[in-house]
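Q: Could you predict the 3D structure of Lipocalin-like domain-containing protein?
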Amino acid sequence: MKKLLLVLISTVFLFGCSSDGGDSGSSSSYNPPTWIQGTWGIKADGSIYQNDQPFFKFTSDNFCLIAGGISQCWKEVIQQTPQIMSGSDSHTDSTYEVNLIQSNGAVTVTYNFKKVSATKIILVDALSGNIELEKLN
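A: Sure. Here are the predicted structure tokens for Lipocalin-like domain-containing protein:
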């Protein structure tokens, strides 16, 4: 849990957004497959977690990070700062990869997800170990 929260917060701060009035007509490069659409995180267990802890939200055209109650949706970031931010994704029937790209590829953060079932996915993290997430809605 601490590893996941650290990854999410680091990404939000690394790619902090500005609202400089950029081209709002820019399109998102995110097209999450239907099997991953929804909110994913750790379900309340009544002891350590009194409430569900969401970490990612996927819609038909957006990828959002949720950390400490703050949601950062990348479609909007790209639309606000198209000169420095872009994104891409790819998927199969059981995997989804998201790329957050800053400054024409100088910095790229990649998230890899693997489908376990209709209600469970794994955030694949080679450095700190895989993290299992449950569908919250």
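Q: Anything worth pointing out?
A: The CA atoms of residues 3 and 128 lie 7 Å apart.
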